[in-house]
From TrEMBL:
Domain called Topoisomerase 6 subunit A/Spo11 TOPRIM: residue spans: 206-377
Catalytic activity: ATP-dependent breakage, passage and rejoining of double-stranded DNA
Cofactor(s) required, per the database record: Mg(2+)
Domain Spo11/DNA topoisomerase VI subunit A N-terminal: 97-157
Enzyme class: isomerase
Family the UniProt entry places it in: Belongs to the TOP6A family.
Domain of life of the source: Eukaryota
Keyword field contains Plastid: no
Localization per record: Nucleus
Record key words, sorted: DNA-binding, Isomerase, Magnesium, Metal-binding, Nucleotide-binding, Nucleus, Topoisomerase
Example GO BP: meiotic DNA double-strand break formation
Organism from which the protein derives: Danio rerio
Name used for this protein in its record: DNA topoisomerase (ATP-hydrolyzing)
Name of the coding gene: spo11
InterPro entries: Meiotic_Spo11, Spo11/TopoVI_A, Spo11/TopoVI_A_N, Spo11/TopoVI_A_sf, TOPRIM_Topo6A/Spo11, WH-like_DNA-bd_sf
Length: 383
């Protein structure tokens, strides 16, 4: 029997009324524009060489908090006046990365010019000794996207998705393949080309982001989507990959329904939720197409630990890394601008304990799906 969620319906109506105030995704860059920007980079290198100077690439430090600012309607965005970091061809410490960037630029140029696509994994395994590691290649692709000021999808390099999705949702892939996510027992992998998805059909009343794969599977096993009401559940299996974030954003744009987050009551879970909501420092240059600022924190709230009298033995003491992370979170502007979130983070810091979603099973085996989530959604227990 499906539950009636009046508070969710009210939230959905309010969301639809306020859509015109939300920043929309940036338009894709044309293929010709991508080619032109690559040509300008190569042209600068040729000019430097012709002058007898060592070529230099101008990159942006994507790990520096000083290079981003918080914009409430978007999230963490790149500052306009960021100072570039210079990658010198002539320095032993940077020459290898300089060469690898040129190599990837040549691959991108050919892909865009021929209107074809390749996955980062395919590119890496074409010459694994050259790139050294998949992580190195991934980082270079993001550096190029940031340097050219081009969305990564416009580079014609796709990433293999690690996320899964299930629920009341059907759509067509770019090649015309129909994808049906309605199966109650199995999930569908998030598309590697989210931008190409079209003809989205869904009666979902809300989208639920689930932090961990284990919790996501538990929801599937308990037939969560059918038991409650039409909804969509998605997981990035921990820290989300770009495709999982793109998918949440695309569904939010298409369906105009509330988006909730179900994460562990620990510093790591809160940070993962904030990545979906406000983005990350390393991908701040693509914030407009990756973030969903309306994400609501459904649980597990630190205050729920005491409210539901979670047994002490089910809690985990803070490690030093947790203390450092919680202190960092409390200093971030996207936490301090939300008093209710700030109070929850303070509660966790004072408690010096963390709790995984699975701890609710210590109350009752099906407490999460039969009591906790239905009550939260019915009575508006989110912040």
């Amino acid at each position: 029997m499906a539950y009636q969620f009046t508070e969710v319906d009210k939230l959905r109506e309010a969301l639809c009324e306020s859509l015109e105030t939300v920043d929309r995704c940036q338009e894709d860059i044309s293929s010709q524009d991508v080619l032109t920007r690559i040509e300008k980079v190569i042209e600068r290198i040729v000019i430097d060489v012709s002058k007898g100077e060592a070529p230099v690439l101008r990159l942006i430090n994507r790990s520096c908090w000083n290079n981003v600012r918080f914009q409430e309607s978007v999230g963490l965005v790149l500052k306009d006046d960021v100072s570039p970091k210079y990658l010198h061809c002539g320095k032993p410490t940077t020459a290898t990365k300089f060469a690898l960037i040129l190599k990837i630029l040549s691959i991108i140029y050919k892909l865009v010019q021929s209107d074809s696509y390749a996955t980062k994994r395919d590119i890496y395994y074409n010459d694994p000794q050259l790139f050294g590691s998949q992580r190195m290649l991934d980082s270079i692709v993001d550096d190029i996207s940031c340097m050219l000021k081009v969305p990564r999808r416009s580079l014609h390099i796709l990433a293999t998705s690690k996320g899964f999705i299930s629920g009341d949702l059907c759509y067509l892939e770019e090649d015309g393949t129909k994808v049906d996510c309605n199966s109650s027992s199995t999930a569908v992998s998030v598309s590697s080309n989210v931008n190409g998805i079209r003809n989205i059909v869904s009666s979902a009343k809300f989208i639920l982001i689930v932090e961990k794969d284990a919790t996501f599977q538990r929801l599937l096993d308990d037939d969560f989507c059918a038991r409650l009401s039409p909804c969509i559940i998605i997981t990035g299996k921990g820290v989300p990959d770009v495709n999982s974030r793109l998918m949440v954003r695309k569904l939010w744009d298409a369906l105009h329904v509330p988006v909730f987050a179900l994460v562990d009551a620990d510093p790591h879970g809160i940070e993962i939720m904030c990545i979906y909501k406000y983005g990350s420092v390393s991908m701040a240059f693509e914030a407009h197409s990756l973030t969903v600022p309306s994400v609501l924190w459904l649980g597990l709230l630190p205050s729920d630990i005491q409210r539901y009298r979670v047994p002490e033995e089910a809690l985990i003491p803070f490690a030093k890394a947790d203390e450092r992370k919680i202190s960092s979170l409390r200093s971030r502007s996207y936490i301090t601008c939300q008093p209710t979130w700030e109070r929850e983070v303070e509660t966790m810091q004072n408690l010096k304990r963390k709790a995984e979603i699975q701890c609710l099973a210590s109350i009752a085996p099906h407490f999460l799906t039969r009591v906790y989530l239905p009550n939260k959604l019915r009575y508006g227990g989110w912040i």
